Amino acid sequence: MSELLVAEGISARYRVDADEPPVRAVDDVSIVLHEGESLGIAGESGCGKSTLASVLSLNVHPPLTVTSGRLELAGHRLSLTEPGWRRQAEAMRGKVVALLPQGAMNVLNPTRRVSDFVYDVLQSHMPRISRKEAVERAAERFEQLALPRRALDAYPHQLSGGMRQRVVAVVSTLLDPAVLIADEPTSALDVSSQRALLKLMAGLLERRIIRGIVFITHELALLRAVTHRVAIMYAGQVVEVGPTEDVLFRSAHPYTKALMDATIVLETGTRRQRIETIGGAPPSLMAPPPGCRFHPRCPVAMPVCSRETPPVVTVGAGRTAACWWVAERMQQAAAPAGAGAAGGAGPGAGAGEAEAVGEGHDTRAASQ
Ligand SMILES: Nc1ncnc2c1ncn2[C@@H]1O[C@H](COP(=O)(O)OP(=O)(O)OP(=O)(O)O)[C@@H](O)[C@H]1O
């Protein structure tokens, strides 16, 4: 499968106060989106998902800066720290990559019709397009995706929230971007509007209107519905990547397992959530812990985890996890029988496949 988006070693930080260290919101993240694929990005609130969405969609504005990394988007290469990359990014925004942000429906101006919005969007990239052509182009796309053509004549208040969100989603694809970065696009929608938007996004891919989607959410149920593969983030880093069902139901990384077992708790007075099944809270991204950032909360942490950055281990076909504990288990599983494999992966976990971490906790305890 060919690669549509390749992000390598992306680090991005917010510097809000000169007297304080920057917030290292995304730190050395590498991901790949394949042609025709929907890739989910999940993790607790504050783990850097939206920041990564901003970088991947080339929407990087102060106080956010990119400190390292390379991006390849539909054959266009950008080195995000070289002078001139912003100009290049500006030319690609909307045309090569488009962002559907949280609460996108609110971009519609209440005093103007949807058709005015369509014209504004298209005209800003295609100064010569006539209003008639712009509206016709949108109408065709609406029909293709089973949205009523009459929505173009409506003012935003005449449409439901779900319809407004779908309208903005479709308008964001009018310049035929290769990649759509959808950042929590279904948040604040009721269940039936969520379903309709997910169907619309699947339609965009199936009809090859777009060639790939990065779908950001903290709702794990949605990942199953829309994504082929998923990357799990913790404290600004990717900890596990693989096919969605494998990552969610046969998690390799202790954090993914915790996330799957979690009761997500909304913290009073904020829109942040934390996981209740494991103690502690995610670290401050101004001063993340050394080694593995999850080690202070990890039920299977080893001494090395607090000292050294974990290796990225292949745990199956197209699956990786960044974890010392997983690395040790893979090594044990690969060792010949009787060669000190006590406490290694259990039955069914061959050299190329780590077993789900849930059972692994018990196995490891037995080996100590
Ligand atoms: N404009 C900003 N200025 C300073 N820090 C920011 C800003 N936006 C985000 N951050 C910080 O960057 C870190 C990552 O935030 P980000 O919004 O990317 O996470 P997230 O996983 O998308 O969270 P959520 O699910 O709540 O949107 C957090 O520590 C957050 O407080």
UniProtKB/TrEMBL annotation:
Entries under Pfam families matching the protein: ABC_tran (PF00005), oligo_HPY (PF08352)
Residue ranges constituting the ABC transporter domain according to the UniProt record: 5-260
Region: Disordered, residue numbers: 338-368
InterPro entries referenced in this protein's UniProt entry, alphabetically: AAA+_ATPase (IPR003593), ABC_transporter-like_ATP-bd (IPR003439), Oligopep_ABC_C (IPR013563), P-loop_NTPase (IPR027417)
Molecular function terms, GO-annotated: ATP binding
SUPFAM superfamilies referenced in this protein's UniProt entry, alphabetically: P-loop containing nucleoside triphosphate hydrolases
Keyword set includes ATP-binding: yes
Basic and acidic residues biased stretches: 358-368
Tagged with keyword Nucleotide-binding: yes
Keywords in alphabetical order: ATP-binding, Nucleotide-binding, Transport
Stretches with biased composition (Gly residues): 340-351
PROSITE patterns hit by this protein: ABC_TRANSPORTER_2
Protein name in UniProt: ABC transporter ATP-binding protein
Organism listed in the record: Geochorda subterranea
Lineage, broadest ranks: Bacteria, Bacillati, Bacillota, Limnochordia, Limnochordales
